[in-house]
Amino acid sequence: MVNFEAEITDNPLKNAFRGKATVHTHIPGQSYVGDEAIPVIKNQYRNSRQGTSLAYINIPFCETRCLYCLFYQNPLQPESSLHYTDLLIKELQLWSDLAAQNHEPIHAVYFGGGTPTALEPHDLYRLIKAVRTYLPLANDCEITLEGRIHHFPEEKMEAAFKAGVNRVSLGVQTFNTQVRQTMRRVDDRDSMIRSIEKLASFNQASIVCDLIYGFPYQDMAVWEDDVKTAISLPLDGVDCYQLNVFEKSPLGKFIANGKLPAGADKEERGEMFALSVDLLTKAQWRRLSNNHWCQTFRERNIYNRFGKSAADCLAFGSGAGGKLNGYSFMIERKYDEWSKKIEAGIKPIAFASAPGAYWHALRTISSEMELGRINMRSLSDVYSLPLEKLSQDVFDQWSQAGLITPVGDWMVQTIAGQFWHTTMAQLLVNVLGKRLTQTK
Predict the structure, then answer these.
(1) Mean pLDDT for all residues in the chain
(2) Engineered SS bond to 167: which of 31, 144, 150, 301, CB 3.0-4.6 Å?
(3) Domains of the chain (ranges plus CATH)?
């Protein structure tokens, strides 16, 4: 039996659950490792995609390593930009004749990492153009370049926009110089602000920044200033995320060894989340999901909206992850191994997992929970499954705990429910996965 119950408490924002989930919901299936994974995914590539589709391009280099990051792969070397771009374009060509890559439009492309803006301007330009050549992008495709302000001069901005980037996502995390430098972020507050203003002045793309709450030395006053600073800038969107402190990250080790304070605890983070909701709502920003807000209609947030759903996502580059027809897969993370396979004309897939039972419905449910509301009756009809019936006791209990408010057929999350939505999504998927299997 899966225990889904929240604590009945006077303050569900702080105390609804003992711990907050920090990973995406996972629908397990049979796994394939190494060379056995390649034909499994290639077979899926022979089929055309359906519905909204995505593509993820990974750039596995960083000039510095931030203390909190688990995505760091390789240091940036002088020859990295040219060599990697050459090979990544070859990877884009490898399966370009297969249906999944050359049929049906792709609606959002995300250049992530790592630090995509670490590439040199010419390499960034030709990589983006290659993506536009070898992928069937929709005419309104969202093309996001993730990056940091450090080593992102005007010349590189111009190259990105000229190649077709129409969305820039900046990992600001915090505007506070002390907190930034403690986390080994390079640029100070004033540099961040000037660069955001410069990007916006091109008037070519949606400019978005990520903010994170829960850093060491980031108290409520610092967080309030972070959000208010974002509101004051010519940004089209902002994400507000909770800091995940991973045990194996440098930050986790620093905290464990007493070199840094732990930062805000679970209760304080709940208050920080609620403060950001209050400030952005009062500033008349529009909510796109529990964590994402927009100030203008230029911001669409397509990749993030569908990234955790059942939508297909093609993947390219060392360390990239994708999904196709329910199969999840990872591209080789070790840079040397990835390079060797590309040079040999082999798509370097290192891992794949087949979809578990009811994967499409469960992923859809997980992604819907990110939007702050869910309609189980409608989803029951879509999938011809008793989803509403099997989850009624879950939502009844969460309503009693102050996490959900029923509004007609919709289960609408309270502020506390929005803060705990990842945990709730994980529990809901676990409960339904088990109960659906038992009702076969």
Answers:
(1) 95
(2) 144
(3) 12-21+358-438 (1.10.10), 31-307 (3.80.30.20)
